[in-house]
Amino acid sequence: MNEMKLYLGEVFYFTDSPLLSAENIVYEPDSALCVCDGLVVEAGTSAILLQKYPKAEVVDYQGSVLMPGFIDAHLHYVQTEITGMYGRQLLDWLNQYTFPAERAFADTDHCREISHAFLKELFRNGTTTAVAFSSVHPQSADILFEEAFRYNMCMLTGKVQMDQEAPEYLCDTPEQGEADVRALIQKWHRKGRNKYVITPRFAVSCSPAELEACQRIHADYPDTYIQTHLSENKGEVDFVRTLYPDSPDYLSVYEKYGLLTDRTLLAHAIHLSDSERKRIAKAQAIAVHCPTSNGFLGSGLYEMEKANEAGMQTVMGTDIGAGTSFSIFHTLGAAYQVQQLNGYPMSAFEAFYKATLGSAKALHLDQEIGSFLPGRMADFIVVDYNSTFAQLYRYEYLKRTQAWNIENLLFGLMTHADDRAVRATYIAGQCVHER
Ligand code: GUN
Ligand code: ZN
């Protein structure tokens, strides 16, 4: 057994949804997280744990919050270089900026360089688990898995499958794509903490044969995941209607090929009918809200309240590179603004839940990540809630007026914080980033 460590700070995590009960919110000012062999032993009052584990090495993070690392449930590692490209909506943006950038991932040196930079950027922002698109090139997923494996990180990714409506240099064939994906699954799925995600880009770029290939693969490996895009942009929705005229709506294209499952992540899911929401909920599929991307590309406003009412699971994604920030704090702040425009002032608890335990549960990974319950992997972050002057003044004011509490703390983070708030990031008990 390795040495036990006690991290002192202000432990914060959820045991279940805060929308069900306030008792599912755990916050303790003078507390500690006890970690051994990369796993959470327990979290609790620091005085008690210091007495219980007198030989543990103590790491002092008092004055900072210790919380589970973020789960970024939708982003494109191969778009790390192209955030903030001016002036177009989805389909033009893909053609003008995205496809040329992804072309470079044919080169393994480039895959290596960007994989490395991408993981560092996640850690700097407190993200410890990602569900990421690679490019169409199998080597892009292979190398990202390899780099994530080195950190013992929980990485979910897959090579994009696409065979139409894109430049030839970025298309596979259903046959070659299927062979490449099967080889990647054999090599990487459940190796270390890696998980394979079958990745048909979206209905526009997939022929029926491509979608059938994805269906066959998932039938053979039912514990893999599936990720795609759904109803992000009105022009895209219209295009899908012309490409799949026999499908009554966008979602039914994926349903027809068995791709709407309880392991399916649907990025954006903005322009939905009530029927689509109901079917997503029934399948227990996962909608990924990507608010900075949706604002940036002018895609629309995700309807969180309607999704909640329909019983859909919503989780959070940055959607780099249409998203404008790797920071989940920024993403939650942007989500709040989107929901305000919808007349639904989403609480800070709901926001943080959807980026931690809520996301872990939706992914069937809550035994591994998302909380500090005993036995979970010690993927956690140390958060300075006064990393900017605006936060400090706000803190002093709230203290002075006796209004300082965990909800205000969290709301301040989602309004103000960025990578400067992340003092340290730990993956499986190892420090991978420190400021
Ligand atoms: N739809 C299909 N591909 C993409 C992509 O790369 N980014 C976004 N935002 N939407 C997509
Ligand atoms: Zn995307």
From TrEMBL:
Catalysed reaction, written as an equation: guanine + H2O + H(+) = xanthine + NH4(+)
Cofactor, how bound (note): Binds 1 zinc ion per subunit.
Annotated family: Belongs to the metallo-dependent hydrolases superfamily. ATZ/TRZ family.
EC numbers: 3.5.4.3
Source organism: Parabacteroides absconsus
SUPFAM superfamilies noted in UniProt: Composite domain of metallo-dependent hydrolases, Metallo-dependent hydrolases
Cofactor(s) in the UniProt record: Zn(2+)
The keyword 4Fe-4S is annotated on this UniProt entry: no
Gene3D superfamilies, sorted: Metal-dependent hydrolases, Urease, subunit C, domain 1
Keywords linked to the UniProt accession: Hydrolase, Metal-binding, Zinc
GO molecular function, one term: guanine deaminase activity
Pathway in which the depicted protein is active: Purine metabolism; guanine degradation; xanthine from guanine: step 1/1
Domain Amidohydrolase-related span(s) in chain numbering: 65-430
Function: Catalyzes the hydrolytic deamination of guanine, producing xanthine and ammonia.
Protein name: Guanine deaminase
